[in-house]
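Support reply, case 0932

Customer input (verbatim):
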Amino acid sequence: RDANNRIYEHRRDRMAEGLKKLGIRFQLPKATFYIWCEVPTRESSTQYCGRILKETGVSFTPGTGFGEAGEGYFRISLTSSEVRLQEALKRLEKKT
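Our regenerated output:
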């Protein structure tokens, strides 16, 4: 269990570094493998996630998928490998 926790903590920290560089605001999670981020544009969370998917191939979950209060946010899953997460950051860097 400790080894798995360290893996997710490392992925979280690397993703957090990348998001900060991109100017995307987020809440750093303490005990989960998701990061919730603020939509950095004036788009709805659904519009933003759809555009990012279309333009970069990176998939995020719109906050509205978790209820009305989720509008303005999107969720990133840390369950993919670190290589894939870093690739996602590189692709995002070209679009933000």
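We compared this against your earlier run and they match. Two observations from our side: The chain has a mean pLDDT of 94. The longest helix spans residues 2-22. Please reopen the case if you see a mismatch on your end.
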